[in-house]
Amino acid sequence: PRLRPDVLTITDPYTGEQKISKAAIGATAGAVLGAAVSSKKDRGKGALIGAAVGGGTGYYFDHQEQKLREKLQGTGVSVTRTETGIILNMPGNISFPSGQYSILPSFYDVLNSVALVLKEFDKTAVKVSGHTDSTGGFQMNQTLSENRANSVSEYLASQGVSRTRLQSYGYGPRNPIASNDSPDGRAANRRVELEILNP
User: Fold this and answer.
1) What is the pLDDT of residue 81?
2) How much of the chain exceeds pLDDT 90, in percent?
3) 10 Å Cβ neighbour count for 99?
4) Among 1, 83, 119, 161, which is least packed, fewest CB within 10 Å?
5) pLDDT tens per residue, range 57-80
6) Coil, helix or strand for 75?
């Protein structure tokens, strides 16, 4: 089967660049597999079924990713597509006061936007992870990371995201994404991540 060119690409609202849809790749692979395992008479039908199976989940995540990028543009929250879902990285300096777990009032609008998209795309699970830098005691950082993850989960639930979809974890300083030897690195490590996954 031929896939339409406009289905093969999506536009990144940050850069304006066109990129290949992961769903289109899945659909193409599914179509090839579907055609290969079907009899000659039903090969076209098998290809269509394979395309639907290979691309369905991918399309769902493609559309969710694009909606999140549109809503979160310019907020400081990064949107990263992975093999298993979508990660939203919320830096600590824009989401929480230093050393605290009460959400900054200026961050409510960002979380409201996230909640709207999560409610629209309600067939996913959401893992909320708190992370800190390595300064201070380990237990203090562990508790702070747990409390920050819980604060974000509770706020999303208050905005109508089903609690059954939300799981929160605190990792303290265990999973740095930058060196803790510099102020910039420590700032990068202080974050909350939302990982949007298949349930």
Assistant:
1) 95
2) 68
3) 12
4) 83
5) 788 999 999 999 999 999 999 999
6) coil
Q: What sections of 73-137 are H helices per DSSP?
A: 92-95, 108-120
Closest by alpha carbon to 65, among 14, 130, 25? 14
Question: What are the structure tokens assigned to 80, written together?
Answer: 């990263």
Q: How far, in Å, CA of 31 to CA of 165, rounded?
A: 31
- DSSP 3-state of 197: strand
Residue 21: the pLDDT is 52
pLDDT at 103: 97
What torsion do the CA atoms of 71, 119, 85, 60 make, to the nearest 10 degrees? -90
Q: Is the dihedral of CA 171, 124, 92, 158 positive or negative?
A: negative
- More confident site: 6 or 124: 124
Q: Rounded CA gap, 176 and 86, in Å?
A: 19
Q: To which residue do tokens 């979380």 refer? A: 111
- Tell me which residue has tokens 């790749």: 25
State the helix-helix crossing angle for 22-37 and 43-72, rounded to 10 degrees.
Answer: 170
Residue 5: Cβ-neighbour burial (10 angstroms; 0-12, 13-18, 19+): exposed
Check residue 27 and give its pLDDT: 47
What is the token pair recorded at 26? 């899945």
Which amino acid type is present at position 33?
A: L
**170, two tokens:** 């605190």
